[in-house]
Structure formats: structure tokens, C-alpha cells
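Comment thread on ticket #2218

A.B. wrote:
> Attaching the input chain for the structure job we discussed in standup.
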Amino acid sequence: MAARHSLIRRTLMVAVMLGLTVAGGLAADKTSAGEVTETLSPLKPPFQSMTSDELFTKLVEHNRIRDLRLQQYSAQRTYEVTNDKGKVYAQEVVRVGYQAPDRKTFVTESEKGSAVVRDLVLKRLIESESETSSGRAHRDSSIKPANYDFNLLGEQDLGPYHCLVVEAHPKRNDKYLFEGKVWIDAEDYAVVRIAGQPAQKLSFWITRADFVRQYQKIGEFWLPAKDETLVHVRLYGTKILTIDHRDYAINSSPGASTRDLAMENRVSEP
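C.D. wrote:
> Ran it. Output below, let me know if you need it in another format.
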């Protein structure tokens, strides 16, 4: 589950860097936490008798197989720092390339807004992910039994995906782990969505840090679609980092787009 290893580390860095930058002079905003409320249905056959441990085992094994098959991809990412009113402080558009087993490259395509926020938050965030993927700054925050317990809650549809929903409880008080909910596709046993907070309080200034990561299915692979981190800073309100992931080219030439890959798959179908 290499794609999920750096999620909490990224959330932590976003929270800390946004908090410090806000305290250094961005405009103050007051807002309430953006809670996500969901209505779940009870477990039904064939999942009624499934245990949390069985679901966790299926998730880990299916992710392991997909990771082995994922050799390379490229995608466009748009990083934005905004306030709760939608004001954009900074934006960075990059092309990210992944090569198995752990190499990532980042090329900036465009940037705008505050140079301070771009340098202290966005560029440092990108540098950190590059270091983490190469193992130079690795902290194991992956979703696996050594780090989490699962509590199976029920079933829910998220767009086209029918999901099993679990509570994830960290096994230790570690700032690189999270507590929250995970939505798992009931057919592929892949993570569709994660929503939560770091398991450990980050600092005096940061009263809360909430994140949501959404995944999308492209071919046989599940890859990030959107990340949103809301950082609630004492006296300064809420700042939001959004990362949109699009235009994937998977196990193909770097110039091929997600649309090209989808058309290629359709042509090859009988």
C-alpha cells in the first residue's frame, strides 16, 4: 500500500506548516469544523457475518497485489491553499511521475499567489513526499494490522462505489497515525475514502486538523482523486489545503493521458 504510506505524514506537515504560516501573518478567519456526517445501512449478506479482521486481511492482500502490478504512472496535481471563503493564497500545479517500487519525480508546470506560502508550505510538502517515497524520511503510517484496529460499522454507497465502512483506531499515540473512518469498496477491497484526524495533538496553535482523501478507480488501479486538509489555528481560524489529482497515465508512455488510456482499453475490449 505504498500510495497510502505518506498520507498522515503529509497531513501532519500541512497542519504544522499552515499553522506557522497563518501565525506569521495571513488574514484571520473564524469558522466551525467541517464535519462529514453519513447515514449507514446495517451489514447485509454476504457481509453480515464478516469480521473486522477478515475485512482487514482482504484489504491488505488486494492492495499488495495491485501495488505489484502498478509499474509507473504520471499525473497532474494542483495544490491550493485557501481560506473557508474560497480566497486562494497560493497555487502550485505540478506533474508527478511514479516509477516502481518507490521513485517519484515532480516538475512544476505553473504557480501563482503568495511566494511565502508556496515556499514554506507547498514546495516543502512536495520535497517531503519525494524524500518519503525514496525512504530517506520514511515513517510507516500505512493502513495495516500493526498500526490499526478496525471496527466494522456498516455499508454505504459513495457515488458509483458500494462500500464497507469501518472505524480505524490507532494502536499507539503516534502523530503519524490517524483516527477516523475508512470506506472500502465491497467488490475490489480497495480504499475509496479516508476521513479523520491525527492520533496525537500537533501543537498548542493547532486546535484541530481534519483531512479527507478520496480515491478513484482507473482501470484496475485505485489512485488518489482529491485530498483536503482543514487546519484550525488558534486565533487565526481555518485554512484549507486542497490537492486535486487528474490526467493519469498508468503503465503506459508518459505522454498518454487518462482519456487516451480509457479509449485504448475500450478498443481492446471484445
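A.B. wrote:
> Thanks. Noting for the ticket: The beta strands are 72-83, 88-99, 103-113, 148-158, 161-170, 178-185, 191-198, 206-218, 221-233, 237-250.
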